Amino acid sequence: MYLKNIEVQGFKSFANKIKFDFHNGITGIVGPNGSGKSNVADAVRWVLGEQRVKQLRGGSMQDVIFSGTENRKPLSYASVAITLDNSDHQLPVDYEEVTVTRKLYRSGESEYLINGAVCRLKDINEMFYDTGIGKEGYSIIGQGQIDKILSGKPEERRELFDEAAGIVKFKRRKNLSVRKLEEERMNLTRVNDILQELEKQLGPLEKQSETAKEYLKKKEELKTYDINMFLLEEERIRERLKEVEEKYDIAASEMEDSNRRYEEMKAEYEAIEEEVEEIDLAIETAKNQLNETNLLKQQLEGQINVLKEQINSVRMNDEHYGNRSNTVRVEVETREEQKRSLEKKKEEVQEKLNEASAQDAEAKGQLIEVQTRIAEHTAEIEGRKREIMDILGNRASTKAKIQHYDTTKEQIVARRSALARNILEAAAEEERQAESLKAYEEELGKVQETIAGHNARIAENEQEIMRLQKELNEKQEKLRIGQTAYHRESSRLESLKNITERYDGYGNSIRRVMSNKDRETGLIGVVADIIKVDKEYEIAVETALGGNIQNIVTDNEDTAKRMIAFLKKNKFGRATFLPLTSMKGNTGLRNEEALREQGVIGLANTLVHVEKQFKGLASQLLGRTIVVRTIDDGIAIARKYHQSLRLVTLEGELINPGGSMTGGAFKNSSNLLSRRREIEEFEKTVSMLKADMDAMEQDVSRIKAERGACYNTIDEIQQELRKASVLENTAKMNVEQTHTRMEEAGQRRVGYASEQKKLAQELQEIQDNEESIQMELETSESLEQELNARIEELQSVLEEEKQAESLQMKQSEEVHLSLAALEQQNVFILENISRIEEEMGKFEAELRELDSNKDHASQEIKEKEEKIQELKDTIEDSKELFDEIGKEIRIQTEKRDELNRKHKDFLRMREELSKHISSLDKECFRLNSQKESYEVASEKQMNYMWEEYELTYNHAMELRDKNLTDLAYMKRQIQTLKNDIRKLGTVNVNAIEDFKNVSERYEFLKGQHDDLVEAEATLVNIIEELDAAMRKQFAEQFARIAEEFNSVFKQLFGGGKGTLELMEDEDVLEAGIRIIAQPPGKKLQNMMQLSGGEKALTAISLLFAIQNLKPSPFCLLDEIEAALDDNNVTRFAQYLHKLTENTQFIVITHRRGTMTAADRLYGITMQEKGVSTLVSVDLLENELDK
């Protein structure tokens, strides 16, 4: 067996998928520091199940997933797979090749696979037991393990030696046995505790059981006397009940006849009353009409008086209108005179205002003209002064320019010749770089298109993975919830089925009988199995059934007889049987009208569902029980029917005949009738949850498969992307370098040309300016003289204009004040005119209204007098109608008096008949009460027999003893038996069954106790045998390892001595191991006294010794020879070759001697920052040869 390859992706710095292929011999893995070489060893240790994060050089397990770089995104998972050649079948599997894979996702999910099949970490560990491979073995050795071997305590070296001695699997078996032994001892302790408790219970239960047997015997005797007394009393009650019913029928018949005659008389009486009511209505109508006529007359007389008052009022208003009209006309004339005076005054003021406005405008215009001239002259003076200053400044700078131009011309000529040569050289360089840039850009564009395509595909797949992961999380959460619900509901369903099948909740005798159901075909079931009822009525029906619910239904009396014999024979107790051949139903309620009362739902037997053959049984058990909605409804109905009915409410309250009431809270929410319905509901729920769970599991598998396909696609794309990235980086670097060189050449050429052009412009400017500079000097002097003369002239004119401005401003202010006074006077006049016009309008409107009212007054008086005459005519016409109405009232009154006399005669006759009916009703009520009291007495006795012995009248007849006819004797015997039972005190009837159960349990646990004691002894023997075998094997192998260690030590050190010792006074299986080394020429000394190189070589000697004795299929060494000098490295490499006969070596190294000894080399480097890649072998060999 050997390691064929390692496949790594997304693990630490291995972002891309990399595969290492290995062969027998030595394979070296080399590379610079930080390139990721040791990550190969971490990957192998991780895939073999390493769970300790520190061993993997991380802070958390998520750190093993590639975390991204500046240019790469973090990956979503890490995967490592190792493939082993198993052609020799050293591993306990049937495959020629075994691949172990471990994957970890950022979501926290982790999975292990063997040849693609999901497995547990435990499966992997067990597969590699005693092979040297594994996280605890010696197949992966790093510098940390070297330090642990050298610097650790003697006890900490045990793992390595246990693995080498081959006792690890024995230790694991021993640990399992020890744990099992502890569990067995804990179980034994618990069983002992239970046995002690049961022993305490057995004594008291046995006494209680004997008392219970005596109690049951006396109860049976009491039952016999009770039944016979009940039958005698029932016969007496039935005879008396028959007599009462005959008397009641006679009285009821006579009462029916009287009621008929009463109804006929009542009909005649009602006809007379209707006629009287009609007459009363006619009289009332006539009186109302008469009252209305009187009221109308009074209203008309009132209207006449109102009209007369209105005529007087109109005559007085007419005189007032004339006086007010004269006053208003005088006021209007006064206002017109005032208005004419104000308008004349307004015209005078307007003329003065026009004159003042013209003078004001003229004065303002003259002032503005003077001010404008002053401003123009002032500005001109300032401008002339500025011109003089500019001329003086220009003259000084002109003289300086003349000197500068001469020097500059010489410098420009020399610089222009040098620039011409530089421009030619820069242009040639720029053309060469432009050609190179174009070629590189075309190459880069193609590579970037390829990378963009790869990235787009990766992004699409990553988005798809995120979507699938989100969907997977949701589905898994739903699946978990669904599984929880499914298992919970399944458990509840199974529990309910078991309870139903075991008849839990039923008496012991019922369970014993029903256990024979498979053997006894005549056993149909208990009442609760036969009757089905809607959930709404479950409590009511179960209460109505009472103890009957546990009665056993059989096909006939023979089956019942056999089962009773069975109970007697085995002393299992008592049970009530209901043979279908005896269940004929009952005659129903005596008071069927009770079913129509408010709050009644119906008879209990009509609310249940049973097969046709059980209709008589349901009628027998429930046919005389009425179901009502509430206890209030039940109480009202019971009172109405004199406590003769058996009533039950929906909430389970029971009202018995005679008035007793039963009710309260139930001990639990479940009942016997609801079990079948609950099972059906649970089965539907479980079936639905199972279907949902199966569908969800299929969805989860599908999503995982899709996610795996996306990961594989990303792996393939990233492989291509890595290659393209190398090409892109190279192309980018070439483009950037070429572009930079081309820009530099262009910038130089442009700079030279710009400078040359600028020099030419400067030279031309100098030549043009030299001629005009002299002319400027002469012109500036003459211009200065002209400007000074003009300034003096303007200043004299300015003084004269300022004096004129002062006079004009004074004149303008006087005119403006006069204008403002006239404008104020004009506004006042206009306001007065407006006020007078408004007052005149009001007076004229009032005058028009007065004239209009005066014309209407005479017409209104005439109309009102005509209206008064019409009203008087109407009053005269109403007198005839009043006389006719009074006559009609007298006729109807006489007719009503006649009917009232007949009405009194009927009242007398009806009163006599009513008294007769009342006496008959009292007699019927008395007889009915007597009948009901007998029925109640009978029902009470029936209830007593049912509640006490679960017997019906028919069943009691079957148990009758014809010799018992003396009531007095039976009463004495009953009293004696009750006294005897009372003396027994509180009796636990269940003690018989409890004693039997406890005894059986005690015997069962006693057997278990013996089995546990035996198992404990067996485990102790196994542990002792394992200890003896391990001690023997470890002692033998340790001696061989010590001898081989000394031999290898001498070969690697070139002499000296190496010794291994067990710590004294300790168990050989737990003892620490001391390593003592004596290099050549030195004394024996402890490991701490050796140099770093000697320590490392000592540890290597120990590892090689173990490999010699028990070779592992492969061994991965991570820079364990780093501390050795060159000579020792050569010895290390030579000895490594010796071991390759049985072991394949993968060596991570920096040392040249080790590299030279390797049969094959892999190089690890970081071409891209933060990403480890594989380098070709040829390249490494070439570098080694240099």
Summarize the structure.
With 1186 residues, the chain is of the alpha+beta class. It has 19 helices and 25 strands. It starts with a strand and ends with a helix.
Topology overview:
Blueprint: E1 2-9, E2 18-21, E3 26-30, H1 38-47, E4 77-85, E5 97-105, E6 110-114, E7 117-119, H2 121-127, E8 140-142, H3 143-151, H4 158-165, H5 168-502, H6 508-514, E9 523-526, H7 527-530, E10 532-533, H8 538-545, E11 552-554, H9 557-570, E12 577-579, E13 600-603, E14 608-609, H10 615-622, E15 625-628, H11 631-640, E16 646-649, E17 654-655, E18 661-662, H12 674-949, H13 953-958, H14 967-983, H15 991-1053, E19 1057-1062, E20 1073-1078, E21 1085-1086, H16 1092-1109, E22 1114-1118, H17 1126-1139, E23 1144-1148, H18 1152-1157, E24 1160-1168, E25 1171-1175, H19 1177-1185
Parallel strand pairs: 3-23, 3-24, 8-22, 11-12, 15-16, 22-23
Antiparallel strand pairs: 1-2, 1-4, 4-5, 5-6, 6-7, 9-11, 10-14, 13-15, 16-17, 17-18, 19-20, 20-21, 24-25
What does this molecule look like?
By secondary structure, this protein is an alpha+beta fold. Helices cover 70% and strands 10% of the residues. The protein has 19 helices and 25 strands. The strands form six sheets. The protein has a six-stranded antiparallel β-sheet with strand order 2-1-4-5-6-7. Strands 8-22-23-3-24-25 form a six-stranded mixed β-sheet, sandwiched between helices. A five-stranded mixed β-sheet has the order 13-15-16-17-18, sandwiched between helices. Strand 6 (110-114) and strand 7 form a beta hairpin. Helix 5 packs across helix 12. It is flat. It starts with a strand and ends with a helix. Mean pLDDT is 78; it is low at 1178-1186.
